[in-house]
Design a protein that fits this description.
Elements lengths: L11 E7 L6 H17 L8 E6 L6 H11 L3 E6 L5 H11 L4 E4 L10 H11 L3 E8 L5 H16 L12 E4 H7 L9 H8 L3 E7 L12 H15 L2 H29 L7 H34 L6 E5 L7
The structure holds uridine-5'-diphosphate and magnesium ion (MG).
């Protein structure tokens, strides 16, 4: 691991995706603003460092608050997406906007400990290109959230997906790592599954997760399930392999059943058997439908990817040098 020279502090952008965060925004701005200003005055990051708020098509006044923050603070800039594109796309929009040496991504509700930013920078200075924020305590999350998260991580692990457990999207990335991440052109990117694929020297910092400062979770069960499905189908073809295995087993079972049926016929004890016929129809019908469903998931992905649509459109920008209306 090579140490980075401490003579010139790196420029650092903090990317914050915001969706209907009107309650959490003021506190978020205040806390992140003071963290950034402290780091600037301690000369740990350069004065060009910024906070980039990405408004992910909020329906409340989040964008108005971001614009106001931009006009009052030189270190704040904002990007407004034309409609709600989801947490991961909002993050990509913020990462694409940043030109700094180091980018931190963090949620607007500040459930993740902002004091880790300094430790992440230390790890960066020691030579890491990616520093993962890892929660070592989820006691403030609901039992439901904890259980489903645990199930999801172990399912992913069993399917051979390499991802950092208990790490969401709170991380530091160097310019180089961000540029590489932005080379992944797939739609609906599951960023925390892609980042470990980048390689580079990485390290972890640990923290305990707080409760949301204000407002409600913007991840209802529907969005959680779609993120999980996205994570699995975009990173592994294990479900397809499982279908092949299932297909193989059912073939063997059907051959055995056929032999049994023929023997019964030769013995002259047929006619009855309606039950077994019905069971086989239902069984194979079910298996086929299940398989079709999983295949459909991948076919759907191919369909979406071949269209190669842009992931987002920036409607308006505030702050920074390249202001666009
Ligand atoms: N978010 C977003 N777009 C969405 C949903 C969420 O930009 O469609 C943002 C949200 O504003 C927050 C972050 O993603 O900054 C994480 O969301 P949240 O804290 O609600 O998720 P949870 O912590 O409950 O999993
Ligand atoms: Mg949260």
């Amino acid at each position: 691991m090579t140490h980075r020279s401490n003579i010139t502090p790196p420029s650092m952008d903090i990317v914050v995706p915001c969706y209907n965060e009107k309650e959490a925004f003021p506190h978020c701005l205040e806390v992140l603003g003071s963290v950034l200003c402290n780091l600037m005055s301690a000369k740990k990051v350069s004065p060009q460092s910024k906070i980039i708020f990405v408004d992910d098509g909020s329906k409340d006044n989040t964008w108005l608050q971001i614009k106001e923050a931009c006009s009052k603070n030189g270190f704040v800039s904002g990007v407004k997406l034309s409609r709600n594109r989801g947490h991961q796309n909002a993050l990509i929009a913020g990462l694409s906007e940043s030109k700094s040496d180091v980018v931190i991504s963090i949620d607007a509700d500040l459930q993740d400990d902002v004091h880790c930013i300094e430790s992440m920078l230390e790890e960066y200075n020691k030579g890491s290109d990616i520093v993962y924020g890892v929660r070592n305590d989820r006691s403030t999350d609901s039992v439901f959230k904890r259980t489903t998260a645990k199930m999801f991580y172990s399912l992913m692990e069993n399917m051979g997906v390499n991802q950092v457990s208990n790490h969401a999207d709170y991380r530091l990335m160097s310019r180089n790592a961000v540029d590489c991440l932005l080379n992944f052109k797939e739609q609906n990117m599951y960023i925390r599954g892609i980042v470990p694929l980048l390689g580079f020297t990485s390290s972890k910092v640990y923290y305990s997760r707080d409760e949301r400062v204000a407002g409600e979770s913007k991840y209802p069960i529907k969005k959680m399930i779609s993120l999980a499905v996205e994570g699995i189908t975009s990173l592994t073809i294990t479900p397809l392999r499982m279908i092949s295995a299932l297909g193989f087993i059912t073939c063997i079972i059907s051959i055995i059943t056929a032999i049994y049926a023929i023997i019964e016929k030769i013995n002259g004890s047929t006619v009855e058997g309606w039950t077994s016929v019905m069971i086989s129809i239902i069984f194979f019908g079910g298996v086929q439908l299940l398989c079709l469903g999983v295949i459909g998931e991948y076919v759907g992905k191919i369909y979406i990817e071949t269209k190669g649509r842009p992931r987002f459109f920036v409607e308006e920008k505030q702050g920074g040098n390249d202001e666009v209306k």
